[in-house]
């Protein structure tokens, strides 16, 4: 009677991080959609996601940033457990740990009302958002180096490298276009989608490893 409990418990621990990588973006998108529905005048094409934190329902978007921060942290811990301890892996992991911190800061320091004077809150929010974008690029290139030489992960090398290149292009676009660019909301959503899809793909790979571990634990009866 105790054997199944042991391998089921082991499976739960192993899968936790991978599931967090899937759940984080999904919950974030769901809560963002809910907040958008409560802001009838909100334009997702021209307005950023952070703008949803303004107003009486802004707390929903703020909570979504907090949850995403925590789940990204759990996902990072699981990924680090799976890969080696090489320099590139450590750089990628550290970058994602800082991304988790950046998401927390974005939630703690929401953006201000449009046209309002610049404040310390705004400065921290904008710096955190910009830092997240740069850190994601660093993480992609670092993990691409790691995946290129790691058995079982080589198929994700080119995809991870391409994801980093796309992120660089989108960041350059945000620098060269005017601050009042109408399409900035869409642009930000492309940045997010690029990052979230990568996390989802890596999570699926981690879940595959989880299934393999599940089979081992079940076959040994531990």
A few lines on this structure:
With 222 residues, the chain is mainly α. Helix content is 77%, strand content 0%.
Break the fold down into its secondary structure elements and pairings.
Blueprint: H1 2-37, H2 58-82, H3 87-108, H4 120-149, H5 157-176, H6 184-220
Description of the structure:
The chain is built from 6 helices and no strands. The chain has 222 residues and is an all-alpha fold. The protein has one domain (2-220). Helix 1 (2-37) runs antiparallel to helix 2 and helix 1 packs antiparallel against helix 6. The longest helix is centred in the last third of the chain and has 37 residues, at 184-220.
Helix content: over 70%
Give me the Rg, rounded: 19 Å
Average pLDDT confidence is 87
Largest beta-sheet characterization:
none
Low-confidence stretches: none
Total of domains: 1
Given helix and strand content, the structural type is mainly alpha
Tell me the series of helices and strands, N- to C-terminal.
HHHHHH
Write out key terms for the chains shown.
single chain, 222 residues, mainly alpha, 77% helix, 0% strand, globular
